Amino acid sequence: MICGSFSCKETRVKNLLKSLLPVALLATAVTAGAQDFPNGKPITIIVPFAAGGPTDKVARDLAEALRKPLGTTIIVDNAAGAGGSIGANKVAKAQPDGYTLLLHHISMATMPTLVRNIPFKVESDFEYLGMINDVPMTVIGKPSIPAGNFKELTAWMQQNKGKINLGNAGIGSASHLCGMLFQHAVGVDMTAVPYKGTGPAMTDLMGGQIDLMCDQTTNTTGAIEAKKVKAYAVTTAHRLTVPALKDLPTLQESGLKGFEVTIWHGLYAPKGTPPAIQKKINEALKVALKDPDFIKREESLGAVVVHDNRVEPAEHKKFVLSEINKWSPLIKAANVYVE
């Protein structure tokens, strides 16, 4: 077609505007969706561990605290397996619309080294939404162990080298990581007994089928209060104030200098979740972390709700990357992995 220079330019401009119209409409729809989010639609929090375990408990407490500031139902969905990577991968591959979130613990920092052929990248396949809590660990034993305190437990472990079964909730679990460090610190080789979750491991510990376990206070405090297990120490730098745990010494004061393990939990969304939606979830998380009922429930289990700058997404990610650098050499030295 032959046309004057002005008419050709006018035609090109019209064609350009037509081509940009769908993009503009999509951007408007995304913006509107972010403003309306969650618009009454349920949000699912994926927990990459079995129901009834310590991380599941944190997720269900948080779900209740998030319900009001987000104005919608929060569903907790358990997707356990492969050191926590199955559930994490489910979220990494989910639609980045804010309706599928991940609540994960310290395993976010250990999976890159611990899990072989991990199908996602912790550093780049998630949006970091903020930290939730820090959870101490406790060293506990079956009721029939004759040791009444940590000094006596140390002597008992030395006398029973090669005979001690150390339970955990599965390779890559918090109890597995703590157990690895514990037996290295005390210099006693133990037989690691992995279970499919904390629940069955605790059942066998209370029943005397295994001897020891190092697990989160969110899971052990009730059993300690009920005297169904023997408690010997906590893994924090200072003693805890929870009534059931306040008399337990720290491992550091018991002679294991430098031994400090705290399990933390954070909230994540799939990479590409709109910034406006990320902001809404982060703001709701900050409200939830100040909820008196949530704080009370967490503190009753020995957990400390995060109120420092790690509740900010950038600081959350910075912290996780520092934890990856901390745990990677320890896991490589132990030569353990998850297929």
Automatic annotation (TrEMBL):
It holds the Pfam family TctC. The keyword Cytoplasm does not apply. Gene3D superfamilies: Bordetella uptake gene, domain 1, Periplasmic binding protein-like II. InterPro entries: BUG, Bug_dom1. Keywords: Signal. Residues 1-34 form the signal peptide. Belongs to the UPF0065 (bug) family. This is Tripartite tricarboxylate transporter substrate binding protein BugD. It comes from Ramlibacter agri.
